[in-house]
């Protein structure tokens, strides 16, 4: 029962301090490593307050375990918020699908079909299927055919294809965002982070165990 009380208090302190860390990172645009020390101290104080007269190894280790979890959660949240903010506009723009985008995709299909059928095409200078990114990069005959194929679809089918492409891009951008967060989290660790993490863990144990009050 005592352990549960210590854990609840420590988790509350860890959640609050990790949240403060993430908020500072979001508003400052920087992931500040020394705040990790603050997280360890707060967790230690919370466990100590819940432990009361119980001192020693048990509450100290409890504070350390919770502090480590809070440190990792806070750091990941900080990195996630920064990534979300930096890429939100770009991802939102990338995920907007228009009829022109669909016609652009149809251009590539037309080129592949006509190439297989050995149908001649007059490409703009310097352009090919490998380099074309917009409709204007394709032969005019290909553009016309792509527009015709799109306009020949009834409105319901057009909307269906737009929605499907939108959902596909949302999944893709979501996967890219998750990967960016994971890589950003790994890359965010440096020597100073490790130093402050160690200080946070030591402080959590010292305060949580009651050693601080006995000094």
Quote the beta fraction. under 5%
Please give the alpha-carbon distance between the first and last residues: 28 Å
> Can you tell me the overall shape?
elongated
Structural class: mainly alpha
Structure summary, number of beta strands? 0
Q: How many DSSP H or I helices?
A: 8
In terms of quaternary structure, the protein is: single chain
Mean pLDDT: 86
- Our Rg estimate from Cα atoms comes to 28 Å
Helix amount: over 70%
Unreliable segments (pLDDT under 50, ≥5 consecutive)? none
What is the N-to-C order of secondary-structure elements (H for helix, E for strand)?
A: HHHHHHHH
Any overview of this molecule?
With 215 residues, this protein is an all-alpha fold. The protein folds into two domains: 2-83 and 189-214, no CATH class; 99-175. Helices cover 79% and strands 0% of the residues. It is built from eight helices and no strands. It has helices at residues 2-28, 35-51, 57-94, 99-116, 140-152, 155-187, 191-209, 211-214. Helix 2 packs parallel to helix 7, helix 3 (57-94) packs antiparallel against helix 6 (155-187) and helix 4 crosses helix 5. The chain is elongated and about 85 Å long. The mean pLDDT is 86.
């Amino acid at each position: 029962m005592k352990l549960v009380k210590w854990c609840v208090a420590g988790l509350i302190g860890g959640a609050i301090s990790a949240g403060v860390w993430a908020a500072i990172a979001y508003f400052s645009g920087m992931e500040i490593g020394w705040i990790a020390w603050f997280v360890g101290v707060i967790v230690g104080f919370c466990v100590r307050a819940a432990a009361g007269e119980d001192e020693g190894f048990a509450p100290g280790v409890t504070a350390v375990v919770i502090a480590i979890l809070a440190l990792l959660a806070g750091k990941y949240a900080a990195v996630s918020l920064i990534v979300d903010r930096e890429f939100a506009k770009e991802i939102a723009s990338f995920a907007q699908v228009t009829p022109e985008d669909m016609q652009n995709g149809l251009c590539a299909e037309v080129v592949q079909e006509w190439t297989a059928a050995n149908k001649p095409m007059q490409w703009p200078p310097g352009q090919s299927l490998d380099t074309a990114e917009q409709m204007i990069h394709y032969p005019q005959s290909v553009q016309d055919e792509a527009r015709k194929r799109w306009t020949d679809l009834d409105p319901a089918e057009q909307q269906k294809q737009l929605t499907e492409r939108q959902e596909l891009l949302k999944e893709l951008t979501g996967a890219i965002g998750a990967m960016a967060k994971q890589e950003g989290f790994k890359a965010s660790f440096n020597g100073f982070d490790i130093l402050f993490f160690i200080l946070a863990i030591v402080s959590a144990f010292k305060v949580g165990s009651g050693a601080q009050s006995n000094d």
